[in-house]
Amino acid sequence: MTHPFLDLAPLTAARFAAIERRVADLLATEQDVVIMQGEALLPLEGCIRGGARPGSTALNVVTGPYGQTFGDWLRDCGAEVVDLAVPFHSAVTAEQVERALAEHPEIDFVSLVHAEAATGNTNPVGEIGEVVRAHGALFMVDAVASVGAEPLLVDAWGVDLCVIGAQKAMGGPAGVSAVSVSARAWERMAANPKAPRQSYLSLLDWKARWIDGGRTALPHAPAQLEMLALDACLERIATDGLDTVMARHASAAAATRAGATALGGGLEPYVHDARDAAPVATTLRTPAGVDAAELVGRALAADPSLPLIAGGGALSKEMVRVNHYGVDATRDVVLSALEALGTALAGAGRTADLEAARAAVEETWPKS
User: Fold this and answer.
1) Pairing between strand 268-269 and 282-285?
2) Scanning 74, 109, 164, 289, which has the fewest C-beta atoms within 10 Å of its C-beta?
3) What is the rounded CA–CA span in Å between residue 140 and residue 367?
4) Kind and range of the H or E run holding 41
5) Which residues of 169-204 are buried (b: 16+ CB within 10 A; e: fewer)?
6) Considering only CA atoms, which of 170, 181, 100 is closest in space to residue 326?
7) DSSP class per residue in 197-254
8) Cα 319–325–327 angle (5° rounding)?
9) For the stretch 48-67, what's the b/e string if a residue is b when 16 or more beta carbons lie within 10 angstroms of its beta carbon?
10) What residues are paired with 277 via a beta bridge?
11) CA pair distance 196, 52, nearest whole angstrom
């Protein structure tokens, strides 16, 4: 018996390289792009272990849980780490980064998450990139939650290592990821004796065996289904138009924020300033006395497919996250999510105005 997921023709090196070029176009970069066969934590860890080493000093910007993870990896590499942590309800500013660099001129590596879906904030990478470039440090950006949802201009912003995954705004698979690598990032890794080599984490292996070899022979068998799915989602973005895809996410974010505010019941945006809010997900603070995880559980009882989740860790008691990305960046999904939250709030003894929430969404969503 045949099956659409089985007995596929081999994925050729030429097709693999063509998909890399499409990713480069999406990132607006002339840098090398490496597509790695695993979830985005693979290249993220590979970038840090390749770019940091004993004797280096890293500025690690923490605006959510992934920034905290990067700090742990950097310390494990033997680097001195300067953490620049800001409240999760806000974004970091270029001025804060500039001050940190001035106070620690020895910093030679900067790590930053563009958009933190877990906390709902987004950081001004373009402005920060100017500051980091002037300082001369290597700049690594986690753009997993921002690619496809907001502008991402790798070369113009001076990003040396930019990691993306397709599973959020791109609407693609989770099992494959990519990273763009600048020439000076390659130089830094090549000069680092501690950089992974002959390892699944190794970017240098991809350069030696794939890029420097003319992209004619893949280092190992590719994750074929994931690669085909990545190509398909890149094709869909190209067909719709990147600006259209980003506008859809911006509309979903604005409508969710407006609708949640109008809904009432004590629910309010977790990120204080709308300009700091990520277009890929909106986080909401629950009223005192209402457990966020329990509220989400009640909201999902009628429709488990809604993109609602409680915050992670300590945030699970106070934060609700609406993941309006990919196929869920639509007015109908936003309305359904808010209606479910309103019903759950009513079940918790809170007064929620569903009609006001619907009106706010309709008013905020652009008329087509």
Assistant:
1) antiparallel
2) 289
3) 38
4) helix 41-51
5) bbbbbebbbbbbbbeebbebbeebebbbbeeebbbb
6) 170
7) -SSTT-HHHHIIIIITTTS-S-SS---HHHHHHHHHHHHHHHHH-HHHHHHHHHHHHH
8) 135
9) bbbbbbeebbbbbbbbbbbb
10) 121
11) 11
Looking at residue 70, its amino acid is: F
Contacts of 159 (CB under 8 A, 6+ apart): 125, 129, 139, 140, 141, 180, 182
Using 50, 70 and 90 to split pLDDT, how confident is the model at 4? confident
Mean pLDDT of 150-176: 97
Cβ-contact 309, 321 below 8 angstroms: yes
Query: For residues 163, 168, 171 and 177, what is the CA-based torsion angle, rounded to 10 degrees?
Result: 30
Distance between CA atoms of residues 262 and 54, nearest Å: 52
Where residue 270 falls (left for φ over 0; alpha for ψ -120 to 50; beta otherwise) is alpha
Distance, in Å, from the CA atom of 23 to the CA atom of 157, rounded to the nearest integer, reads 17
Q: Taking the C-alpha atoms of 215, 218, 223 and 224 in order, what is their torsion angle to the nearest 10 degrees?
A: 70
- Rounded CA-CA distance 293/258 in Å is 22
pLDDT attached to residue 20: 98
345-358 average pLDDT score:
96
Q: Determine contact, residues 97/131, Cβ cutoff 8 Å.
A: yes
Buried b (16+ CB within 10 A) or exposed e, 255-282: bbbbbbebbbbbbebbbeeeebbbbbbb
pLDDT at 132 exceeding the cut of 90 = yes
CA 328/CA 119 separation, integer angstroms: 18
The DSSP secondary structure of 328-347, one letter per residue, reads: G-SHHHHHHHHHHHHHHHHH
The model carries a pTM of 0.96
Output the six-digit token pair for 355: 């009609």
Contact 354, 342 (CB under 8 A): yes
pLDDT in tens, 311-344: 998 899 999 999 999 999 999 999 999 999 999 9
Amino acid making up residue 117:
A
